[in-house]
């Protein structure tokens, strides 16, 4: 594999040139986004994201093109780009936070593009992120490539893009509280309503610290996560009522998840004056609304995805419910078991994973 000598201005310039239609394939649509993907590339829909892949094993070259559905705009094209760059590029690939950008505005839509070099598992490549903002919505697409020959096809793809203004305006309108999650799924990558409002007899909810995503991808899970818990039990003599002893139990677990779905984990717990430390490896897979953790030492753990939220400081919180072989919770059950009394979603019998910024 050879490392391409791509400079930023060249990469961005290729985006805005008109490319002959000979490398186009059939037009496709995703949400408010209409486009023509490169001809002959392998298409792999994954968790609402359209992924197109091309590679040449002989030359050692590859390109991965990902197209995301629209979400609510942050209020300006530059903010939209910064948010998407941080979420889609910085977190999984640990690259620079503020790349140089190029802007272009037409018919109420503003395109912002930026590029950077990344390295994953020792493989150097380049990533180009493009956001299109307008009429209250933003769509994102990025390409990861290790050879400059793909710039022409990326430019052709972006030149083919057409935006649906009517759908954007309809999707940007606030949804009523009774709107179902299924309806929201067609409009945005984020929930535009509170799925866990306050209920009588429960502690009042606090405002959510960030936006809840409808679904997640493996890229959202990349990084180091932690979860844990503790309990203190005091014992008293049943006859005299005098204090006898106290038992403190706690545990902490850390998962380091990679882009290919593999993970390393470390566990430490203490109960009844005994400390347990364990390490493990395995894989994590996404299957519809479920996250399946397959350890190399124990049976698979099937968890129902409940919520994924990124806070303004960059911290992420993943809320799960372990269901094993049981039936998944329906909407009413989730609303009865899950709240956000601390600003993030937590469920009775569930777990909250935290990825610190």
Helix content: 10-25%
The CATH H-level superfamily of the largest domain is Mog1/PsbP, alpha/beta/alpha sandwich
Number of E-type strands? 22
Q: Identify the CATH architecture of the largest domain.
A: 3-Layer(aba) Sandwich
Based on secondary structure, the structural category is alpha+beta
Head-to-tail CA distance between termini? 33 Å
Contiguous low-pLDDT stretches (5 residues minimum) are 1-24, 174-187
What is the typical, i.e. mean, pLDDT? 81
Oligomeric status of the shown chains? single chain
The helix-strand sequence is HEEEEEEHEEEEHEHHEHEEEEEEEHEEE
The total of helices stands at 7
Overview of the molecule:
Helices cover 16% and strands 44% of the residues. It is an alpha+beta fold and 357 residues long. It folds into 2 domains: 8-167, 3-Layer(aba) Sandwich (Protein Transport Mog1p, Chain A), CATH 3.40.1000.10; 218-355, Lipocalin (Beta Barrel), CATH 2.40.128. Strands 12, 13, 14, 15, 16, 17, 18, 19 and 22 form a 9-stranded antiparallel beta sheet that branches. Strands 3, 4, 5, 6, 7, 8, 9 and 10 form an 8-stranded antiparallel beta sheet that branches. The relative contact order is 0.12. The model is unreliable at 1-24 and 174-187 (pLDDT under 50).
């Amino acid at each position: 594999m050879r490392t391409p000598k791509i400079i930023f201005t060249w990469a961005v310039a290729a985006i805005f040139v008109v490319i002959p239609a000979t490398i186009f394939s059939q037009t496709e649509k995703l949400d408010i986004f209409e486009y023509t993907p490169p001809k002959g590339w392998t298409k792999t829909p994954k968790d609402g994201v359209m992924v197109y892949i091309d590679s040449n094993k002989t030359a050692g070259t590859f390109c991965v093109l990902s197209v995301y559905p629209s979400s609510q705009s942050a209020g300006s094209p530059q903010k939209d780009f910064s948010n998407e760059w941080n979420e889609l590029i910085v977190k999984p690939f640990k690259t620079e936070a503020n790349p140089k950008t190029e802007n272009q505005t037409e018919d109420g839509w503003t395109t912002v593009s930026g590029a950077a070099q990344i390295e994953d598992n020792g493989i150097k490549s380049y990533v180009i992120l493009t956001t299109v903002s307008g009429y209250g919505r933003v769509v994102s697409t990025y390409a990861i490539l290790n050879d400059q020959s793909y710039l022409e096809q990326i430019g052709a793809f972006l030149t083919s893009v057409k935006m649906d203004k009517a759908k954007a305006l309809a999707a940007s309108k606030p949804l009523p509280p009774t709107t179902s999650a299924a309806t929201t799924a067609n409009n945005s990558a984020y929930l535009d309503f509170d799925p866990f409002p306050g209920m009588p007899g429960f502690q009042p909810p606090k405002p959510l610290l960030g936006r809840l995503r409808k679904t997640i991808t493996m890229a959202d899970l990349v990084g180091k996560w932690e979860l844990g818990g503790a309990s203190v039990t005091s014992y008293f003599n049943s006859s005299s009522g005098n204090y006898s002893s106290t038992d403190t139990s706690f545990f902490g677990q850390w998962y380091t998840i990679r882009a290919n779905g593999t993970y390393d984990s470390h566990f430490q717990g203490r109960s009844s004056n005994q400390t347990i430390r364990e390490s493990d490896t395995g894989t994590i897979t996404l299957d519809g609304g479920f996250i399946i953790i397959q350890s190399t030492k124990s049976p698979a753990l099937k968890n129902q995805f409940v919520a994924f939220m990124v806070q303004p400081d960059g911290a992420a919180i993943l809320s799960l419910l372990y269901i094993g072989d049981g039936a998944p919770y329906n909407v009413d059950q989730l609303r009865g078991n899950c709240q956000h009394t601390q600003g993030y979603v937590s469920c009775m019998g569930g777990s909250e994973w935290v990825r610190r910024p």
